[in-house]
Amino acid sequence: MIKGSTRKRTYKAIYRLLDRVSPVPFDCGTICGAACCNAAYSSDDVGIMLLPGEEKVHDRNADWLSWEALSTDEYELPGSWHGKIFFVRCKTPPHCPRHLRPIQCRSFPLLPHLDEDGTLQMIFNDYDLPYACPMIEEEIELDRT
Ligand code: SF4
Ligand code: SF4
Questions:
Q1: Which residue stretches of the chain have pLDDT < 50?
Q2: Furthest C-alpha separation in the chain
Q3: Is there an atom of ligand 1 within 6 Å of 111 CB?
Protein backbone atom coordinates (compact mmCIF):
# COMPACT_ATOMS: atom_id res chain seq x y z
CA MET A 1 0.00 0.00 0.00
CA ILE A 2 1.25 3.49 -0.80
CA LYS A 3 1.87 5.67 2.24
CA GLY A 4 -0.59 8.55 2.45
CA SER A 5 -2.76 7.10 -0.32
CA THR A 6 -6.40 8.06 -0.64
CA ARG A 7 -8.62 6.60 2.06
CA LYS A 8 -11.13 3.82 1.60
CA ARG A 9 -14.13 5.99 2.39
CA THR A 10 -12.97 8.57 -0.18
CA TYR A 11 -12.80 5.88 -2.85
CA LYS A 12 -16.24 4.63 -1.85
CA ALA A 13 -17.60 8.18 -2.26
CA ILE A 14 -15.88 8.46 -5.67
CA TYR A 15 -17.41 5.14 -6.73
CA ARG A 16 -20.86 6.37 -5.67
CA LEU A 17 -20.41 9.60 -7.63
CA LEU A 18 -19.18 7.73 -10.71
CA ASP A 19 -22.12 5.34 -10.49
CA ARG A 20 -24.18 8.29 -11.75
CA VAL A 21 -22.09 9.24 -14.79
CA SER A 22 -20.45 7.52 -17.72
CA PRO A 23 -18.47 8.66 -20.80
CA VAL A 24 -21.54 7.87 -22.92
CA PRO A 25 -25.19 7.62 -21.86
CA PHE A 26 -25.50 3.94 -22.90
CA ASP A 27 -23.64 0.68 -22.33
CA CYS A 28 -20.83 0.98 -24.89
CA GLY A 29 -20.04 -2.71 -24.44
CA THR A 30 -23.07 -3.41 -26.64
CA ILE A 31 -21.35 -1.92 -29.72
CA CYS A 32 -18.10 -3.88 -29.52
CA GLY A 33 -18.86 -7.03 -27.55
CA ALA A 34 -17.20 -5.48 -24.50
CA ALA A 35 -13.81 -5.62 -26.21
CA CYS A 36 -11.85 -3.93 -23.43
CA CYS A 37 -13.38 -6.14 -20.70
CA ASN A 38 -12.66 -9.33 -22.64
CA ALA A 39 -9.10 -8.24 -23.45
CA ALA A 40 -8.48 -7.63 -19.77
CA TYR A 41 -9.18 -11.32 -19.26
CA SER A 42 -7.57 -12.92 -22.28
CA SER A 43 -4.35 -10.95 -22.66
CA ASP A 44 -1.51 -10.98 -20.15
CA ASP A 45 -0.64 -7.43 -21.17
CA VAL A 46 -4.05 -5.94 -20.48
CA GLY A 47 -5.60 -5.37 -17.10
CA ILE A 48 -6.70 -2.70 -14.74
CA MET A 49 -4.28 -0.59 -12.73
CA LEU A 50 -5.83 0.41 -9.44
CA LEU A 51 -5.05 3.90 -8.21
CA PRO A 52 -3.01 4.16 -5.00
CA GLY A 53 -5.20 2.98 -2.14
CA GLU A 54 -8.07 1.88 -4.40
CA GLU A 55 -7.33 -1.72 -3.39
CA LYS A 56 -8.82 -0.91 0.04
CA VAL A 57 -12.31 -0.93 -1.50
CA HIS A 58 -11.89 -4.51 -2.69
CA ASP A 59 -11.91 -7.95 -1.12
CA ARG A 60 -8.80 -9.83 -2.28
CA ASN A 61 -10.68 -13.11 -1.86
CA ALA A 62 -13.55 -12.12 -4.13
CA ASP A 63 -13.79 -14.57 -7.02
CA TRP A 64 -14.15 -12.08 -9.89
CA LEU A 65 -10.69 -10.46 -9.78
CA SER A 66 -7.16 -11.79 -9.88
CA TRP A 67 -4.42 -9.70 -8.30
CA GLU A 68 -0.83 -8.85 -9.04
CA ALA A 69 1.26 -6.57 -6.84
CA LEU A 70 3.75 -4.42 -8.74
CA SER A 71 6.63 -2.38 -7.44
CA THR A 72 6.33 1.28 -8.41
CA ASP A 73 10.12 1.32 -8.90
CA GLU A 74 9.83 -0.93 -11.92
CA TYR A 75 7.30 1.07 -13.94
CA GLU A 76 6.94 4.59 -15.27
CA LEU A 77 4.38 5.89 -12.81
CA PRO A 78 3.78 9.28 -11.21
CA GLY A 79 6.70 10.22 -8.95
CA SER A 80 4.43 10.42 -5.89
CA TRP A 81 3.56 6.72 -6.15
CA HIS A 82 5.93 4.74 -3.95
CA GLY A 83 5.71 1.13 -2.80
CA LYS A 84 3.27 -1.40 -4.19
CA ILE A 85 0.53 -0.78 -6.69
CA PHE A 86 -2.03 -3.35 -7.77
CA PHE A 87 -2.82 -4.61 -11.24
CA VAL A 88 -6.03 -6.61 -11.40
CA ARG A 89 -7.68 -8.77 -14.04
CA CYS A 90 -11.33 -9.47 -14.22
CA LYS A 91 -12.16 -13.19 -14.36
CA THR A 92 -15.78 -12.92 -15.48
CA PRO A 93 -15.92 -10.31 -18.26
CA PRO A 94 -18.11 -8.58 -19.21
CA HIS A 95 -19.88 -9.35 -15.96
CA CYS A 96 -18.76 -7.83 -12.70
CA PRO A 97 -20.36 -6.25 -9.65
CA ARG A 98 -20.93 -2.92 -11.41
CA HIS A 99 -20.82 -0.87 -8.22
CA LEU A 100 -17.32 -2.25 -7.60
CA ARG A 101 -15.76 -1.81 -11.02
CA PRO A 102 -12.47 0.03 -10.73
CA ILE A 103 -12.09 3.68 -11.63
CA GLN A 104 -10.12 2.82 -14.76
CA CYS A 105 -13.11 0.81 -16.03
CA ARG A 106 -15.40 3.74 -15.37
CA SER A 107 -13.37 6.35 -17.23
CA PHE A 108 -12.02 4.31 -20.16
CA PRO A 109 -11.45 5.17 -23.04
CA LEU A 110 -10.38 8.39 -21.36
CA LEU A 111 -7.20 8.74 -19.35
CA PRO A 112 -6.47 11.34 -16.67
CA HIS A 113 -3.84 13.85 -17.69
CA LEU A 114 -2.40 16.75 -15.69
CA ASP A 115 -1.34 19.73 -17.78
CA GLU A 116 1.53 22.05 -16.83
CA ASP A 117 -0.77 24.14 -14.60
CA GLY A 118 -1.83 21.02 -12.71
CA THR A 119 -5.28 21.09 -14.30
CA LEU A 120 -6.85 17.67 -14.73
CA GLN A 121 -7.96 16.84 -18.23
CA MET A 122 -9.43 13.61 -19.51
CA ILE A 123 -7.90 12.66 -22.85
CA PHE A 124 -8.57 9.78 -25.22
CA ASN A 125 -6.37 6.76 -24.58
CA ASP A 126 -3.42 6.95 -26.97
CA TYR A 127 -1.65 3.76 -25.93
CA ASP A 128 -1.52 0.86 -28.37
CA LEU A 129 -4.34 -1.55 -27.62
CA PRO A 130 -4.77 -5.18 -28.73
CA TYR A 131 -8.40 -4.45 -29.71
CA ALA A 132 -10.35 -1.70 -31.43
CA CYS A 133 -12.42 0.55 -29.24
CA PRO A 134 -15.18 2.12 -31.36
CA MET A 135 -15.33 5.13 -29.07
CA ILE A 136 -11.72 5.95 -29.94
CA GLU A 137 -11.76 4.81 -33.58
CA GLU A 138 -15.01 6.55 -34.45
CA GLU A 139 -14.52 9.47 -32.05
CA ILE A 140 -17.97 8.97 -30.65
CA GLU A 141 -19.16 12.10 -28.90
CA LEU A 142 -18.83 11.77 -25.15
CA ASP A 143 -21.05 13.09 -22.40
CA ARG A 144 -19.28 16.25 -21.18
CA THR A 145 -21.04 16.28 -17.82
S1 SF4 B 1 -14.70 1.47 -23.82
FE2 SF4 B 1 -14.48 0.97 -26.01
S3 SF4 B 1 -13.78 -1.16 -26.10
FE4 SF4 B 1 -14.56 -0.79 -24.02
S5 SF4 B 1 -16.71 -1.46 -24.07
FE6 SF4 B 1 -16.71 0.74 -24.51
S7 SF4 B 1 -16.61 0.90 -26.75
FE8 SF4 B 1 -16.01 -1.20 -26.20
S1 SF4 C 1 -14.40 -5.04 -13.89
FE2 SF4 C 1 -16.28 -4.96 -15.10
S3 SF4 C 1 -16.02 -3.16 -16.40
FE4 SF4 C 1 -13.98 -3.72 -15.62
S5 SF4 C 1 -13.03 -5.10 -17.12
FE6 SF4 C 1 -14.14 -6.37 -15.66
S7 SF4 C 1 -16.17 -6.69 -16.55
FE8 SF4 C 1 -15.24 -4.94 -17.56
A1: none
A2: 42
A3: no
